[in-house]
Amino acid sequence: MASRDFNYAEPSASSDNASDSDMNSTPERVGAIHKSDHVVLNGRPVKVVEVAHSKPGKHGHAKVHLVGIDIFTGRRYEDVRPVGHMIEVPNIQKKEYSVVELNECNSIILRDDNTGKMRNDLKLKKDSDVTARILDKYNEGKGRIKVTVFKVLGEEQIKAFKVIE
Q1: For 66-81, what is each residue's pLDDT tens digit?
Q2: Rounded to whole angstroms, how far apart are CA atoms 78 and 122?
Q3: Is residue 10 part of a domain?
């Protein structure tokens, strides 16, 4: 039954089971964003590479010009927003996995060392520098390879790796 008291907010169904770590993003004031922060522009997670503040005009507010690079595709995004408005800051989850098997078809099998669970749902990006280096190290066969998987806004990708000898 809905409450008629307007000072009371009913909990939503999505907030009942979601913890803060499961949330995709959190709001932040645009004026508080700095270079190398992560934000969401055009629905994509970007790393801010340029922030320019402008002074308020005759009838307007101070504005912030943001330039960001998509952390998955490398595409450049720009936006201009008022200083006082809110912008989404994505929650970036990083997780390390050990490489179990790798083949030339960009198929990779990973193991979570903490739980022992295997996963084969990730694909290596074609024409990626990280992919080429991982394949080279795997073919050398010297040591175990650990990859770091970034998960942001429901999208996952291998972003880094290291060889443990």
Answers
A1: 999 999 999 999 999 9
A2: 29
A3: no
